[in-house]
Amino acid sequence: MALPIVAIVGRPNVGKSSLFNAITRTRISIVESTAGVTRDRISAITDIDDQYFELVDTGGYGIVDRDDLGSHVERQIEYAVRQATIILFVVDGREGLNPLDRRTADLLRAHQDQVHLIANKVDEPHMDGMIGEFIRLGFGQPLPVSANSGLGRTSLRELIVQHIGSQASTAPADAAIKIALVGKRNAGKSTFVNSLAGEDRVIVSEIPGTTRDSVDVRFEKDGRVLVAIDTAGLRKKAKIADDIEYYAYSRATLSIERADVVLFLIDATEPVGQVDKRLSQFIAQAFKPCILVVNKWDLAKGQSNTDAYGDYLTKTLRELDYAPIAFTTAETGRNIDSTIDLASEMYKQSCQRVGTGELNRALEQALATNAPRAKRGTKRPKFFYATQVTTSPPTIIIFVNNPSYVKQDYQRFLINRFRECLPFDEIPIRLVFKARRSNDRL
Predict the structure, then answer these.
(1) Superfamily for domain range 356-435
(2) What are the respective helix, strand and coil percentages of the chain, to the nearest 5?
């Protein structure tokens, strides 16, 4: 059964994102005093008293966007309105009736029965008398609320529950896999997500920096629910222009941390740059399975071939030299499905466990091939035994006489040998070295 959809709609700066965060009890949507921060449809599955629904935050209707994306924003609002079970039409109770409120009302007129007028920023009870003028919009008496102080929140929750009624759903199935799409600006992340969703779920534009929030998009493949997380395009820290870009950068890195698999999109028409290299380091440090997705390959095929470009990436992004490479054209959908299938396989790989016997045989083979040597002034490490303690990422504890004796280059050697001998050939492996008594030998 499909979840009912509750859409939050209104002109810029009426507090839609604050209200979204208040209802979901999260900080998903970016909240900023600057008008037009939200552009895409930001959604979250939430519940009130175990009645589940999808809450959708939208951009400000009528925004004059500095990147000339106003028409794109309005198209996303119209999608949300058409799909909604309930529409929360939000106005600013403190500022009063605005011409853009009237324009928004005109948009919603055809959906009269689904619209509920919400006067936000009514921070004190005595302000109730100030919101009567909104009746002129034609949607009845507004419900006074304050997303910031919590005033009226209970009444708002009751209104939602009352009107989703029989359409309210039980808890939806958890996503089988969460896949974060990351990369620098204009690498094609939003186009990739729209191809998965089968609709214009997020704004696609040639203008860099279009996506600001991290947008979760649920889709089904082979009978399973997956979540694609579209993130803001990154650029050099020195060029981050304002708080909005800073929040977008923070959300992108948090999305990597909560993802099961990362699709690292690389623009085939541009050389790998510092932003790509920094991002590869972050993904490696987060120990996330990663696919290097070379997008816009149709525009670069005549300049290189897949083997040569793969070698180029392996040499340039050394931290991810184990990651598989996919060549896609998101605009036409080429290789999109196969890339998601590969992501599913990598997630399975990261969830595997190997027995202690198999693991220690791999360690013995590594030691026999290349025993650690002591450099001048240092002592040689002695290895006793290894055991896998967890998955996602596979985490292996190796007991040694002194962890400080195991140098970085030898750690890299062991990881590479484990990739060859164990079923972890395309995913990160975390090694942890612990001290052990010498009589507890392998």
Answers:
(1) K homology (KH) domain (3.30.300.20)
(2) 40, 20, 40
